[in-house]
Amino acid sequence: MAINPDAVGRTYDAGSASWTSTDALLYAVGVGAGSPDPSVELAFTTENSHGVQQQVLPTFAVVVHGAGGGSPFSEVGEIELAAILHGSQKIVLHGPLPVEGKVTETGKISGIHDKGRNAVIETSAELRSADTGDLLVETVSSIVVQGAGGFGGERGSTPPWAAPEREPDVTVRHVTRPEQALIYRLNGDRNPLHADPWFARQAGLEKPILHGLCTYGFAGRALLQEVCGGDPATFGSMEVRFAATVFPGDTLDTAIWLTDEGALFQTRVGDRVVLDRGTFTKRTA
Question: Are the C-beta atoms of 219 and 242 separated by less than 8 Å?
């Protein structure tokens, strides 16, 4: 599996993607909204509740991103699906996502790093309204390609991050469902690593794992409620590193430390950190 470090800076057109009210509702259920109390988060899980106007969870942006089908990875080299892990994810929202819409997406390969045994490929993208051209979302994400390092590229740097030396201001507990990955995959990520026991064993896992972006969505719900008071209009940016696997049925505890800009956060399963280096900023305009 040869990595081409000269691909850094190459751009790609990911085409267009559209979504409906139903897509937004399915995503919300896929990241646990409505459980255990269906009467909570009705704005995100229903479109016809009395006196409640439908809204979209901000982290739905990760589903819209890439939905157009374009990919830059053909420029990097042949990558085996079973060798890929999601490394990190950042979204920046420029306002609430509409209940239905269409976007065009352009992006680029913003970094390729040699971590020794593994390679890390970073991409960035912009999603704009197909109707107005307004910038709706920016994303930065990375994948870890296991066993593809050692090609002589730059290692890359890691920005400083440390959890405050005090108790979290709040810790939000979410219990995932045993079938959580089977629900979440209906949003478009059909990687068999999250559903097929045989494929999971080929990847060295005991059983299928939960999508990292599903865990990301659970943490995003915690931040939306505890930092933004449930208002998507004030949800600015959210960035994490995926630190460990999560299995459907696991209990997620998201610790949140409030800051002047928003919050720092970590998500754990028991003593294991599964989302690390979490940084969240509120949107003020």
Answer: no
Catalytic residues: 189, 194
Residue the block writes with tokens 């139903």:
22
Give the number of other Cβ atoms within 10 Å of residue 39's Cβ: 8
> How many residues does the structure list for the chain?
285
Domain locations in the chain as residue ranges: 5-151+160-282
* pTM exceeds 0.85, yes or no: yes
H helices of the chain, in order, are 21-30, 42-45, 61-64, 180-184, 197-202, 212-226
- Strands (DSSP E) contained in the chain are 11-19, 84-93, 101-114, 119-129, 135-145, 170-175, 235-242, 251-258, 262-269, 272-282
Give the pLDDT means over successive 10-residue stretches in the chain (285 positions).
Answer: 81 90 98 95 98 98 79 71 86 97 94 90 95 96 88 84 95 98 96 94 92 98 97 98 97 98 98 98 87
Cα–Cα distance for residue pair 93/133, rounded to 1 Å: 15
What is the third-level CATH fold of 5-151+160-282? Thiol Ester Dehydrase; Chain A (3.10.129)
Q: How far apart are CA 78 and CA 145, in angstroms?
A: 11
